[in-house]
Every structure is written in C-alpha cells, then in structure tokens.
Amino acid sequence: MNRQAPIQAKTCRDAPILKERGQREVFCGLTGIIWLHRKMQDAFFLVVGSRTCAHLLQSAAGVMIFAEPRFGTAILEEGDLAGMADAHEELDREVARLLERRPDIKQLFLVGSCPSEVIKLDLARAAERLTQVHAPHVRVLNYSGSGIETTFTQGEDACLASMVPVLPATEERELLLVGALPDVVEDQALSLLTQMGIGPIRVLPAPRSSEAPGIGENTVFACLQPFLGDTAAALTRRGARMIAAPFPFGEEGTTLWLKAIADEFGVDDATFERVTEAPRARARTAIANASAALRGKSIFFMPDSQLEIPLARFLTRECGMEAIEIGQPYIHKGLVGPDMDLIPSGPVISEGQDVDKQLDRVRAARPDLTVCGLGLANPLEAEGLTTKWAIELVFTPVHFYEQAGDLAGLFSRPIRRRDLLKLEAVE
Questions:
Q1: Level-2 CATH architecture, domain 174-281
Q2: Is there a contact between 240 and 216 (Cβ–Cβ < 8 Å)?
Q3: Mean pLDDT for all residues in the chain
Q4: Phi, psi at residue 176, to the nearest 5°?
Q5: Residue 238 pLDDT more than 60?
Q6: Distance CA 56, CA 272 (A)
Q7: How many helical (H) and strand (E) elements, i.e. helices and strands, does the chain have?
C-alpha cells in the first residue's frame, strides 16, 4: 500500500507547531497595571501580594508614591502567609481606608498575585462581599495577575475579561474596539473609522466607568491586541461577534484591519480609499526609510509578549526580514490566524517555552536579531548576539499608520548600533 505524502503547508497557519513545555522566562501579569491604570481614569488596582510585587510595580511604573498613582499593594505579611491572621478581615479594612481617602475611585480591581494564589485567598468572594458593602458608589472586581501559568500581557486580558460580565446590555448595533492603547493612537483609529461613516464606536476599557460600553447580539468587536483571547471569549458569550483580521501593525496590517471593519459596515471602496490613501502613503514611506537596515536580515522570536506572530508578519512582509523561528507563549488561531495566513511557511512556529532548548536553537542559528525578554537579552548580547527587548514593544505606541515607521525603527536601531560598534572597533 502506498504511503500518502504529507500535505505541504503553504502558510504558517497550516504549518506544524512545535509545542514546548519547560522552564519559562517571562514577566508576570501585574505588569499590565502599568498601562491600564493610565487608561482607566476612575479605577484603582489593588494588588494583594508581597513586597516583591510592590517593588516591581513601583520600579516599572516609574512614579513616586506622592504622585497618587491609581495602583497600590496590600502586602501579605508572614502572618497572612502562615494562616495566623485573617487576610479577608485585613483586606476589608485596607479597602475601606483606601476608598475613604480616594472618593474618586469608581472601579476597584483586586489583583491576585503568586503569593495570594499560593495561599488560596479567594479574591472573587472578597470582590462580591466588598461590592455589596461599597455599592453603588464603587464596583469591586477581581482578576489574577500571577505569573505562575501566564505571560505578562495576559494581565490585561484577565482584567478586561473580568469586566465583561458586568457590562450593561444593549440591542444597538455598535462597533467595540477591544484593548488598551495610548490615547493618541486610539484617537487615530477612531478618526479613520469615523471618516468612513462607521459608528457608534465604543472602546473597552473605557476611560471612565460611566462610559462603559453595552454588549448584545448586535455588537461587533475588533481586537486591538493579539493577547485578548479570554476577553474575546467572554464577549462572544454575551452575544457579541468578533471581526477577524490581521492586527494593525504596519501599513499592510492596518489596512487589512480597517478593511475588515469597513466591509462589516458596508463602506464602499471609494470611501475607504479616500480615507486611507494619504496615511497609507506616509506609512509606506516611513517604513521604507526605517527598515533599510533590516532588509535581508534574519530574526528569531523568543516567546514573551504574545505579539510575536503579528510582528513577524510585519517584519517579513513589509521590512524584508527572514524569520527563523516565531515563538509565542500561546497561539490562539482565532486571533492570530489571519496574520499566520500571510506568513509563508518556512519559519519554525513554536508555542510555549523550554528556554534551554530555545537558547540552543538561537546559538545554532546566530540570527541577526533576537527578540526576547529582558532576562535573556544581556546574556545573549554577551555572546555576541544582537537583541531586542520584547517588553518595549508593549510600552511603545506601535499600532496604525502613523506609528508604522517607529515600529520598524524599534527593530532597526539595535542592528544599526551593532554595525556602528563594529565600525568603531575596526577604526
């Protein structure tokens, strides 16, 4: 009997996925508070964790305590961890003190951490109890920011998913944009969509709880970030429908993302071209200028931010790079499948992490650029490899047309720096 020949994959969606489970090198989900607390003006994030959690947030956010940031830490002491104190009583007391001092708070998130999860502190029950105590002035929600089983961007996903069940119901046909972006970038997206005649448009998270979007069977939503799998599932359970599209990185990704929404709302081609023609041209020019150092160069993505597949699509198709391996902590084809459709087969697609094995592959491949976490960057640089911090891609405005050149520049700068150092060494 003749053996059937294996089907040759044409794109990365069809390619086999190398699944690895081993030692990981990632930040925890508490990191998401750094951008969420800036976005949600009447929310407060209370981390129930250790002094290590407090130090992480304080150093990562770069703010002073007297600046009154919209986050804090209820520190679990040794007595709490040993079960010698009633952590729920202490939490209730700290929340009461916080809300008395900060009457501007309308949404309070109790954020779980590794320590609170290890001692099985039931923050869901605490959130229900505290909501009853402080309603209607404050709604208390909870989610986990622990890094035990997740990567750092999933903190935002868990936060937004916790909000979905309590969003009001609506029968109105609306477009919902899901994901936190810097205000200036969000305004660009809203401007482009509004010029096409699309509306009403709502956003999640909203700047204030009074502006929270409604959800219903007539709601359609588009994700702005590729790590919002739980949020997308929660919205779908509420009856909303997702618009699948490549993510808006670069000129191509932004155009395809906008076109998918335009088609959903019946925007004609002439209107779409009129609105997008000028910013598309600016984006193409900016990418061409910023990506000259990237063309023909190889890149290796270590799994870290959940942005890896859309970024690989941008770099290979718009910047002329060659991807050796595209590693992502979790691959949700419902979200990143449209990007995978655009990447020709060839790169290794890996899900999860076994850091020692992946480092062996990086050393064997010697790519021109390795995208990885902070903990791996300096050791690899010491071995003569050029690296890019993955976390910088989350903290920097990189979406849509006007940021396309900046996005390419984030990758070209390390290579230009390496070339200049080599030149100086020769001289």
A1: 3-Layer(aba) Sandwich (3.40)
A2: yes
A3: 90
A4: -115, 120
A5: yes
A6: 44
A7: 17, 14
